[in-house]
Amino acid sequence: MGLGLLLGLAHGFACAQNGEIHIYRGADGVPLYTDKKLNTRLLDEVYAYIGKYGRPTAVQSCQGLTAEGMEARGAQYQYLINRHAQAYGVDPALIKAMMRVESCFDRVAVSKVGAQGLMQLMPGTAKILGVMDSFDPDENIRGGVEYLSGLLKRFNNNLEFAIAGYNAGPGNVEKYNGIPPFRETQSYLKRVMAHYKRYRT
């Protein structure tokens, strides 16, 4: 399989609904997507393997974990959470709560609509935020915290509006002048707030 064909797969990876898409990072930092894992010596020298798109999903990431296992998984990202929280002036307990609900602290989680990584960034949002690799914990958390910080400013530090905006989009919060009447968003808000209160203590 030629490199040109492999690079062309980057535009079609979202169409593989049931299969696995393997993600590599080139020496120039540009991601490469392919439906086959590359094992040749040449490609191993040129590309670094990042992970898979398609499995596990964000929902599957939460299954089979005990409460202790979940907290242990989250603890490995506490340093990054604290660092980016300080940089953007966001409560680290809020970031951790949102990450818990978004991905169950799984750095390679992918949602059914294509949101990626710990903070479940949509590819378009990630691009705007300058995130090159949504499966890199440092980049993903930084992008998610920057986005959340912008929402808090946009809604005058109204915590619930910012959380709802992260889930449903800020336009919907403004459209309904409050929490949108979407079951998913209202459930999301309740879960984030519950974890937030727990992490603050």
How does this structure look, described?
- It is globular, with a radius of gyration of 18 Å.
- It is built from 11 helices and 3 strands, in the order H-E-E-H-E-H-H-H-H-H-H-H-H-H.
- With 201 residues, it is mainly alpha-helical.
The percent range for helix content is 40-55%
Structural category: mainly alpha
Which regions contain 5 or more consecutive residues with pLDDT less than 50? 1-19
Write down the oligomeric state: single chain
Average predicted local confidence, pLDDT:
82
Largest sheet: number of strands, sense, barrel closure: 3 strands, antiparallel
How would you sum up the global shape?
Answer: globular
| Strand/helix succession | HEEHEHHHHHHHHH
Report how far the terminal alpha carbons are from each other: 54 Å
Total helical segments: 11
Strand content: 5-15%
Arrangement of strands in the largest sheet: 2-1-3
- What is the radius of gyration computed over CA atoms, rounded to a whole number of angstroms? 18 Å
Total strands: 3
Write the layout of secondary structure elements.
Elements: H1 3-8, E1 21-26, E2 31-34, H2 41-46, E3 47-53, H3 58-61, H4 67-75, H5 78-88, H6 92-103, H7 123-128, H8 137-154, H9 159-168, H10 170-175, H11 183-200
Antiparallel strand pairs: 1-2, 1-3
